[in-house]
TrEMBL record:
InterPro entries given in the database record: CdAMP_rec, N-reg_PII-like_a/b, N-reg_PII/ATP_PRibTrfase_C
Family matches, as SUPFAM superfamilies: GlnB-like
Recorded superkingdom: Bacteria
Pfam families (UniProt xref): CdAMP_rec
Annotated protein name in UniProt: Uncharacterized protein YaaQ
Length: 106
């Protein structure tokens, strides 16, 4: 058995959770915050039998997309502090697939 810990954007969470539940997976949803952008994320915990891991990964591929965001960056030029916007790609999914030594449902 594996535990998939997935970090996704809040915007992708409803469709991802729905797709997982429709395929019979139990999902625990936790609100989290990313360190780089300091924006809200959703962390999902899913217990998966080994043969079904790739099916879950494919659901994330289908439901989680990348987006373009613009971040303000302070630039000091000629003694003046100016805000400059840079383009960054955010989103998608970060998945950790962990071995489960023991699982009990009580």
């Amino acid at each position: 058995m594996k535990l998939i810990l997935a970090i996704i954007q809040d915007e992708d969470a409803p469709s991802t959770v729905q797709a997982l539940v429709e395929r019979g997976y139990r999902v625990t949803r936790i609100a989290s915050t990313g360190g780089f952008l300091r924006q809200g994320n959703t962390t999902l915990l899913i217990g998966v039998e080994d043969p079904r891991v790739e099916e879950v990964v494919e659901i994330f591929r289908r439901c989680c997309r990348t987006r373009t965001a613009y971040l303000p960056v302070a630039v000091e030029a000629t003694g003046l502090l100016q805000a400059h916007m840079i383009e960054v790609e955010i989103g998608g999914a970060t998945l950790f697939v962990l071995d489960v030594e023991r699982f009990e449902s009580l």
